[in-house]
Specification:
Structural class: alpha+beta
Distance between the termini: 33 Å
Helix content: 40-55%
Shape: globular
Number of strands: 7
C-alpha cells in the first residue's frame, strides 16, 4: 500500500459533519455604531459548508443565543433586509474544554450603516426586488417553519412563493440552500441555478451550487461555481477551501495549493481540513517532509481524531520517505 492510498484510507475530512444536540452554545449582541442595541434582526447560524442550520431574531436588547450545538466550526451571520445596516458574518470555533463539559462563545456585532460604500464588496448585501405581498408572506411563513425545523412544510411553502412570483430570488436561494443542507443535491440544482441567473452576485447561491455539483461529481461545474463564490467573497474560508479541494481532485495541484493555503491563512491556521488536504496534495507532489508537517498540524488542531494513531504512523512513514528522497538526490548529484 503506497502512501497516498493510506492517506485516503484514513481520510477524516469533516465537511459532512452531522450536528447533533449538545450543550455548546453561541451567544451574541448586535448594536449600531453608537452602541445602541438593534432588535428584531434575523441572525443565522451556518455550518462549515455555509448552510443555514438555525435562525433566530435579536430580542429587544439586541441579544441572541444558539443552543444545543456540537463541537465544530460555525459562522454567525446577521441579516439586515429592510434596514440601513450592512450584513455581517463572524466565524466561531467551538470545542469542549479538555474534551468534556460545554463550550460557550460570546460575539459582538457592531453594524455599519454606510451601505452605499460597502455594497460593491459585501457578499451579504440583500438583493432588492419588488415582490408581491402574497409571495412575501409565504416567504416569511417558510422562514418561520425553518426556524421551527419543519423542513418539508417550509419547502412546500417556498415553492408556493415561487409559483406566485417565479423570479423571487430570496425564495429560490433559501429553497436551494435548504435542499443542500439536507443533502437533496439534485433537487437543489435548478433553484440555485435560477437564483444566480436572477442575481449573478449571489455568493451564497454560488457556493451552495458548487457543493451540490461537487457531491454529484460534476467537478468541472463545481470548480466554476466555487471560482465565482471566491470572486464574490475572496475572504470566505469555505469557498477557498472547497475550490482548493476540487482543484486537487482534478490534479491542478499548484493552483489547489494556493487556495488551500489561502483558506488556512484566512482561518488563522485553525482549519484542520486545510492541513489534511495540503498533506494529500504535498504527498502527490512527493514533498513528503512538508506533507508530514501538515499532518502534525492537523493532529494538533484535532487531537481527538479517531485515526490519531494511524496518522502518527503515517507521519513517520512520510518522514522516512523524505530521508530516502534526500539520499537519492545526494547520490544522484555525486554521480554527475
Amino acid at each position: 500500500m503506497n502512501i497516498l492510498t493510506l492517506l485516503l484510507l484514513v481520510l477524516p475530512f469533516t465537511t459532512n459533519t452531522t450536528y447533533q444536540d449538545n450543550n455548546n452554545s453561541i451567544s451574541g449582541h448586535v448594536s449600531d455604531s453608537h452602541h445602541s442595541p438593534v432588535p428584531n434582526l434575523r441572525v443565522e447560524l451556518l455550518n462549515e459548508v455555509d448552510t443555514v442550520i438555525q435562525v433566530i431574531k435579536t430580542d429587544g436588547s439586541g441579544l441572541f443565543v444558539f443552543r444545543k450545538l456540537s463541537d465544530g466550526t460555525f459562522q454567525v451571520r446577521v441579516q439586515t433586509a429592510g434596514t440601513n445596516y450592512v450584513s455581517q458574518t463572524k466565524r466561531v470555533d467551538l470545542a469542549k474544554p479538555h474534551g468534556f463539559g460545554a463550550a460557550f462563545e460570546e460575539i459582538e456585532f457592531v453594524l455599519d450603516t454606510n451601505r452605499a460604500a460597502s455594497s460593491a464588496t459585501k457578499p451579504g448585501v440583500i438583493f432588492a426586488q419588488d415582490v408581491p405581498d402574497a409571495a412575501r408572506k409565504l416567504f416569511a411563513q417558510a422562514s418561520d417553519l425553518i426556524t421551527k425545523e419543519k423542513h418539508d412544510e417550509a419547502m412546500t411553502t417556498l415553492k408556493r412563493a415561487i409559483e406566485v412570483y417565479p423570479q423571487y430570488f430570496d425564495a429560490l436561494e433559501l429553497l436551494g440552500t435548504e435542499q443542500v443542507k439536507y443533502e437533496h443535491y439534485e433537487e437543489a440544482l435548478p433553484f440555485l441555478t435560477k437564483a444566480i441567473e436572477i442575481n449573478p452576485r449571489a455568493y451564497q447561491s454560488s457556493f451552495a451550487l458548487g457543493v451540490a455539483q461537487f457531491k454529484l461529481k460534476q467537478v468541472a461545474a463545481a470548480i466554476e461555481s466555487f471560482r465565482r463564490a471566491v470572486t464574490l467573497n475572496e475572504k470566505s474560508v469555505n469557498a477557498n477551501l472547497w475550490l482548493g479541494i476540487t482543484l486537487r481532485q482534478t490534479s491542478k495541484l499548484d493552483e489547489a495549493e494556493n487556495y488551500l493555503r489561502r483558506a488556512d491563512a484566512l482561518s488563522e491556521s485553525k482549519l484542520p481540513e486545510a492541513h489534511w488536504q495540503l498533506a494529500l496534495l504535498l504527498n502527490q507532489l512527493k514533498r513528503y517532509k512538508e506533507a508530514a508537517d501538515e499532518l502534525e498540524v492537523f493532529l494538533k488542531l484535532q487531537p481527538d481524531s479517531r485515526d490519531a494513531e494511524l496518522i502518527k504512523k503515517l507521519i513517520k512513514k512520510l518522514r522516512e520517505e523524505a530521508k530516502k528522497s534526500t539520499l537519492r538526490l545526494r547520490v544522484s548529484g555525486s554521480l554527475r
